[in-house]
Amino acid sequence: MTLLIILFYISSILGIIYIYKHKRGSKIIKSISGSGIKTLLPISMIFADVFNVKKDFIRKFYVDFNNILVNTQSSKYRPENVLVLIPHCLQYSECKFKITNNTDNCKRCGRCTIGDILEVAKDKGVEVKIVTGGTAARNIVKSLRPRLIFAVACERDLTSGIVDVGKIPVIGLINERPNGPCYNTTINIDTFKKRLDDVLKI
Question: For 149-171, what is each residue's pLDDT tens digit?
């Protein structure tokens, strides 16, 4: 049994390296690598503490690798089957309008990127939900049951979210935090649009 576990982890690591480098792989390699990286993630976090490595570096790798796995499926999704989840910290901190329950309340004033995100999503025909945390995101996913999730968040929230949703494919876009975490964060709209176009069947 111990030998099998060792072989599994070795195969997983080799598969992860191969897919990350070549951006492709057979179904078997992707299956082993996908399962392997999920079990290696908590182990990696322990080693990060021991060797004083930034955990966000490991989380970013996990998100990037997950994106590669989803993209190598070569699947395209109809807009009505795609859900875009964005964090409320993208909203301008002094905005007086509550948009977490109703995105139509956004006035598109240009002080944050949410207006641009909503315009792109409207043009593409995909639904956008603004969430205040992981619990709200999970409830929305459970209610809407999308076939693909496009999520914007920090490394920590993206990593935990990808793990939580299980078999639903997730494309993750890490937000930019020029003012620190959870405060007036932002994203590159061109990158958002391109990533969305990559998965949509239009």
Answer: 999 999 999 999 999 888 899 99
